[in-house]
Fold this protein.
Amino acid sequence: MADQYNGGPAIAAISTPAGTGAIAIIRISGRESIEIVDAVFQPADKSSLRDSPSHTIHYGWIVDPQTQDSVDEVLVMLMRAPRTFTREDVVEINCHGGAYIQGRILELLFQSGARLAEPGEFTKRAFLNGRMDLSQAEAVMDLISSQTDLSLRSSIHTLKGGLREKIDMLRGGLLDLMTQIEANIDYPEYDLEDVTLDQIQKTAAAILEKMEDLWRTAESGRLLKQGIKVAIVGRPNVGKSTLLNALLREQRAIVTDIPGTTRDTIEEFVDLGGMPLHLVDTAGIRETEDVVEKIGVDLARRAAEESDLILMVVDAGMELDGEDRAIFQEIRHKQYLILLNKTDLTAAHSADEFAAILGDPQAREHILAVSAKEEKGLDTVESRIRKLFFDGTIAIGKDPLISNLRQKEALRRGIAGLRAVLRGVEEGIPQDMIMIDLTDAYDALGEISGHCVKDDVIQEIFSRFCLGK
Amino acid sequence: MDTEYPVLGSKEHQIVYWEEDIDVAVIGGGHAGCEAALACARLGMRTILFAMNLDSIAMMPCNPNIGGTSKGHLVREIDALGGEMGKNIDRTYIQSRMLNTAKGPAVHSLRAQADKARYKEAMKLVLEKQDSLWIRQSEVVYIDTKNGSVSGVLTAPGGYYPCKSVIICTGTYLQASCIHGTYRVQTGPGGMQAACGGLTDCLRDLGLPLRRFKTGTPARVDGRTLDFQKMEEQKGDEHIVPFSFENSPDAIRRPQRSCWLTYTNERTHAIIRNNLHRSPLYSGDIRGIGPRYCPSIEDKVVRFADKERHQVFLEPEGDHTFEYYVSGMSSSLPEDVQRDMLRTLPGLEHVQIMRTGYAIEYDCIDPLALDHTLQIKQVKGLYSAGQFNGSSGYEEAAAQGLIAGINAALSIKGGDPLILDRSQAYIGVLIDDLVTKGTNEPYRMMTSRAEYRLLLRQDNADLRLTELGYKVGLISHARYSRFLRKKEEISQEIERLENTCLSASAEVNEFLNSLKTSSIRSGVSLAELLRRPEISYGDVIAMGDLAAIERPHLDSAAGEQAAIQIKYQGYIEKQMQQVEQFKKLEQKLIPQELNYEEIPSLRLEARQKLSKVRPRSVGQASRISGVSPADVNVLLVYLEQYRLCKK
């Protein structure tokens, strides 16, 4: 049994705890892990891992083999079987801690042939390969079931509502086509409409186009409800929604001059130069007697608590009041930026003065001047966020990142499946063989939305067609 | 004398006399029973086949054909393993067609219309002639067990047959009732006597999970009252393919009969709708669970109300009868309604019904109680096959009968069981589905149920299974040698096509142009050309001949195999990789004594399902509904721990 596990297919995952530390470790284990890393790693000494001895450390860069872009400066540890954690060949990449970088490196590894490790899979392999004591079996099993549970929950949560519908719609389209093909195969003599290759081509191409759209949004970070969670806070009417819109460059939140119009939080996803941001615009944090507004305030406070980064918006033209100070007290121990908004109008104070009024000299370096209305100073905001992100000061949780990658990977397989379908149609391949690729695409989409029903097609055949003796 | 022998079971069946010891008793002489009994006897077991009526042996109480999509695959697999069904339909067919020829080779499906009377007569004769096999008209009412193992069977008249194994193939006979309209009668199919003597009680007393299923059949009509002018003719194929790999087309060529196509219309549907209240299906008189893929005409009209017409095929039941089977009109409506609705069909205006269509209810087992050898897990030596296992169809039954028979014999002889997996055969898919997923309706084989159907073609069933049949002992030495020769020819032909280069002559390019495919500029291998969609194996041979390339004289089936393997190489390789993945978990066997309750990391639902099904491998466990991928991983770790502890 152990032999079968020795040298299982290569798996990769981030093995450092989520969201902390300036450095992260990505571990790859299994067959061909060394070759897979070689494909994306350029050592400074131009050597290759393949020809290097076991248990050595190599300095160099992770480079996208397609674009030749350098992704990160890394240290790579090479450990050949059997003296490794899993008793398989293991390579560990020490990279910088930013989630974006970790994600990029993982994706490159997937493109080179690794797959994402299942929850607890390294430990499982270690155990199955006899690396662990028998008494640890229980713990391994618990780990597998609890981690799977966790990742399942987080992956369900990461799906944006609209996305699930979109995926379900695409699956519906595929199922429809597959059902027709299968019914024709199993009931050749019935007067069902024959599925033509042309029809398969049209349907598959239409679905492929939508999937490629999704892929592009996935690439820009909008596929999943995740990213660096950025809360926009501030008392009413300081221009939070205007700021959100400026960042989104689209009018989504209601922007008015009446205090407290943002009753609920508005959430948006934006790709800021490769950083996935999950922007949350809160209702003004204000002690209020208005019941409806109170709900908004509660939501706002909670959003602020859960965020990775807080953008506090202050009206530069007005004096700071008690509310501003109260809000500042709530956020000062988190990662924050203070945006002096409405600098298009006359500013009441300079940035230095605002810092002094807040009573915290350290606040000065967190203060940036902007005009959300005129979209001025936003570049500075972006570059500040990017800096915090790439040096790992702020990080996003690992689980959403992983499920995002898993879903993206499934989407990639789905796209590959449909492309193979179109190739098959082009070559005049019989429909029953085209079904192989259609099924792949269908299953891949099912993984994204969390469906894995096997007998869909047979169910459909009998509910849609009138067949039988 | 009465006092000398004991009574058996809750029904207090009296043993009247003692028969000689046998090895295997097969209960039922339908398609499952025939294959089971033949397999056992051919493997040297002293075997008795009991049937309610010997005239019902190999009876086809429903459609008069063998094969069709996926079912044709089953028959060819049965043949490759050494079963009888393929040979018997080759002996008695009256029309043969290859279906789906416009689609890929994986779904080409062979179907033959049978002469029903001759089919059963020929099969009965095969049984009669078989050494070590006796056939007996009698009802088995009790299966005796000792210490959880089969020890004998008792017939209704009181004969006790000590035996080591029993194969239940009761089909639709167990506590059967037939229904049309308000008329309900306790008979088996085709008016045969039902088995009501107590076997159901005996099985229930053994603790087996029994249930009640339902199926149905259409009317048979007098061909002299049909006007075929008003129907479309469906002829048999000119070039026929035998079911049995042992037969050549020439050896079994004979005149063929036609089937005829007509349609229902709005008048038909109106009659049905107006009489729905008289249908036992809608009045609630029938409670058994019927199959979705074989709906009655009343079901079709209700469920697909917007469909303007339904197809109806008139199929001859044999050469020496005028009876026709009205395919598509299965019904349990009252006789007068059946008559009236049939008379609305073009060509059937003056039709005379000979046998009324009916629904039939019968007792069967929840197949989750079986293992992959088709042995009932609770009782050693007790096997079951066919409709009793919740399947439907002659071919599904025969396939199970063969496997149950082989395994009953192998178990007595002390050999490893024969278990086919999902990547080896449709038979493997069929049995794995039944014993892993169970079924809530009579289970029909479909090509869409097979994940690896590109590999499980009807044309290569011999390549997949002959070796196994030979190992089991059902394939003769002579047949095996012929098989090895064919295999050799195939690989030589593949090599020849890959390595023979065709140079770019004007003749060749002219030929290519005539096929509407691009010409070649330099030398190209024959295999390369064959991979073009426009080019067939025959074209490649023709071009080779144009270029005066020498070629060996080949069995046409061997050439066809070589061609398929080259032409669809990419897809075939892809499926083979999938199979490799699949096999990994399939080969991880689970000790049968494993107590799932002791694995707390499994979710509750998984623990319950696993305890019920008791899968033989982790692969099977992964296909049980309610067992998640995480449960599978937990199971893998637990098994490793278990294995180490055992050491």
